[in-house]
């Protein structure tokens, strides 16, 4: 990063970037986010209903960036709601489970969602989670999918052990920052201020226009639905 870029970064203080995690139910998206946020792992975590989020400050070179990380539900009935959250996202993690071949086979469906609803320059990160378990998806197969679909990064992670979880977010944040300074269209598409990007405001706006099977997100979040992460 050159001096002019560092100056621009310092003027903006701490820039905010939206990340979104997508993929089938039970591939471990929530566990990845939990591991990254709290450095912990819990079994039988509740299934995500609609969307949930965290915020995290990340050190990139000599500066800080703030990540707003959106954890989305994998169930098909929430797809229409989730589509709105691609807007303004700088990076998308497409997650599958290495011990569940079906979740890998469904990646083409998620790729279609990205192509239709995300910015064309969004940083795409392929994540094979649960690499601590016996696998049904080989690394070579995933690497081939990555290359054929022009992903920027690929990681095999374990939310349980923490393997590659932090590294995936840090390396993605670096790529996002480089893209931010090199592409005007990307910069415009991902430029958000902290007020407009406040997760509470975003969820409120969606709850006023969308329904989660007839209920608001806040009501459904209180339901006890469990899923292996």
TrEMBL record:
Matches recorded under PROSITE patterns: RAB, RAS, RHO
Single GO MF annotation: GTPase activity
InterPro entries in the record: Rab_GTPases_membrane_traffic (IPR050209), Small_GTP-bd (IPR005225), Small_GTPase (IPR001806)
SMART domains: RAB, RAN, RAS, RHO
One Pfam family this sequence matches: Ras
Record family assignment: Belongs to the small GTPase superfamily. Rab family.
Official protein name in the record: Uncharacterized protein
Lineage of the species this protein comes from: Eukaryota, Sar, Alveolata, Ciliophora, Intramacronucleata
